[in-house]
Design brief:
It comes from Pseudomonas jilinensis. Pfam families: TctA. Keywords: Membrane, Transmembrane, Transmembrane helix. The protein is mainly α and 499 residues long. The protein has one domain. It is built from 21 helices and 2 strands. The protein has a two-stranded antiparallel sheet with strand order 1-2. Helix 6 packs parallel to helix 10, helix 6 runs parallel beside helix 13 and helix 9 packs across helix 18. The longest helix has 35 residues.
Length: 499
Amino acid sequence: MHDLLLGLADAFTLTNLLYIALGVLIGQIFAAAPGVGALMAITIAVPFTFYLSPVTAIGLLVGINKGGTLGGAVSAILMNTPGSPEATATTFDGYPMSRKGQALKALRTAHASSVTGDALSDLVLFLVAAPLALVAMRMGPLEMAAVVLVAFVVVGGMVGNSVLKGLIAAALGVLLSLVGTDPETAGERLSFGIPELMDGLAISAVGIGVLALGEIFRQAIYHQRGSLHRLPDAGLGNPAQNHFGWRDYRHIAPTIFKSTGIGTLIGAIPGLGSTAAAFLGYASAKRSAKNPENFGKGDIRGVAATEAANSAVVGSNFIPLLSLGIPGNVAAALILGAFVIHGITPGPQLFTDQARLVYAIFGAMVIGTLCNLFFGLFTMRLFAKIIRLPLQLILPCVVLLCVTGIIVASNLFSAWLLIGFAALGFLMRMLDFSFVTFIIGFVLGPMFELNVRQSVLLADGNIGYLLDRPIACAFILLALVLIWRLSRRQAQAGKRLAV
């Protein structure tokens, strides 16, 4: 109780309130702009948090993450162009509602559903994370290495179109995480005599380069080819048709609660992410509806299902992050990178060694949800105008922020690394390698290496040590089965396409 009160007191300071509110606004704006997204905002913001306190820094990133879940629905509803991938399913019924003159009602539905799903997901996180951490504390290094191995397979197999390419991307991420000084022998590894690489590759340079600049390069090329959609003019409809009240909320409440359950479960599994949750939530709502033929034609339940499901992922993907040190998706991986920058090691020990910090993060998540609720009442109309800005104006500003941020947080050498990883991110997109898996491999690489090394030392060359650890054996077997099942499923899908 003592740590709980101190943690909440740390979170509810004026400075933290302002930074979290700023983060929510940034997340909403970036996610509302098609082709930019809240993920890019988190990536850019990470180096700017270098000089902030850990609670303020994590609070800012959590705010961006939460704001991004709502902002993506704006362009999906008004222009049939999702601001972020998880809002794709929102277009199915959101845009038809807009065509019927109910754009503002669709936006308000998305707002209410998103905040409800997010809040309930946070509640599950607060109740589940600590007990799960207690279970994780009983696991040894071999078990933890096996859990990370399963995470690599799940992420590599489910993100992207090829299990092999996913595993290669994860392995490349782990390999690059080894650059720098060996933590045990103090010898150089993969630094090629370059002094700036002795401390390893900065997560900010890798993340911004692969995620933000790599995507900007791709969009710039596609824009040159005229492949991007031209933004049409979009209105918010007749006010008389856009009333959203308590009766509407009661109508969609069962859909919201069901989709929140789906999103929470999906978010707790590494690799699946909010996009999968949104589609599953939408499919479940349509399948259980008495009149499924109305879905796709502007049914308010379609908007509620997708927004509640994708927002519920935001809280629950912190369950594996805080209790096991394994990020649930790429946004959580970037926040994990911010943890590392501030000297925080997520995992089961976090709840015993830094319980006050954990409760401060919980407090920051509550503030972020309240800010999303409050700001969403006023910002929807504003974002409807912002999203009409052309990409020719938006993208150069984002590039300037990326380069400035990395130089401020690190040094000029990191700016060159940034360009190199931007090229890598662009190539991975063109060759269909999962950049998400690469980032998670890079972030989890040190943890995987540490646990594997400790396991080798404990085994001391005795293979029987592995056989005496049934939980580790079960996870390793699970990883092999997943590789086989996912590879087989992709092969069958390829044959069907060929036919």
